[in-house]
Amino acid sequence: MPLVRRHAPSSYDRWPAGRAVAWTLGLAVTVLAMTVPILLLLGAPATLALRTLPAAGKCGPAVPREALTRLPHSRYVWFSIPVLITTIILAVQRVRTDRRAAPADHPNT
């Protein structure tokens, strides 16, 4: 198999402009989807919530703040995170499988 192209480039070899734009947008969405979770964690939303919510005392019960303080130390957190991640992975695989199977079920294909 030769490594050199022997025919002249034609319009068949070029990408249409719409495909190039779609590819660029897809790449931008992928990069955004990978960086946003990291930036959210760097923003420390739990710390921000603990500093913002009122402490229990004169204002009445501070249920959200106490719940947020107890949550990381709960005995069920170690189990809930792997279950949540497994559920998300299985749901994504199910959606991908359904999308692949849908065109085969269509009567016009």
In words, what does this structure look like?
With 109 residues, the chain is an all-alpha fold. It folds into 2 domains: 15-51 and 61-73; 75-104. It is 65% helix and 0% strand. The protein has 4 helices and no strands. It has helices spanning 17-42, 45-52, 63-70, 77-105. It is elongated and about 80 Å long.
User: Runs with pLDDT <50, length 5+?
Assistant: none
Radius of gyration: 25 Å
Quaternary structure classification: single chain
How many DSSP E strands? Answer: 0
Average pLDDT confidence is 78
Query: Percentage of helical residues?
Result: 55-70%
The overall number of domains is 2
Sheet with most strands: none
Looking at the structure, what is the overall shape?
Answer: elongated
Topology as a string of helices (H) and strands (E): HHHH
- Report the sheet-strand fraction: under 5%
Distance between the termini: 34 Å
What are its keywords?
mainly alpha, 109 residues, elongated, single chain
In short:
By secondary structure, the protein is mostly helical.
How is the topology of this model organized?
Blueprint: H1 17-42, H2 45-52, H3 63-70, H4 77-105
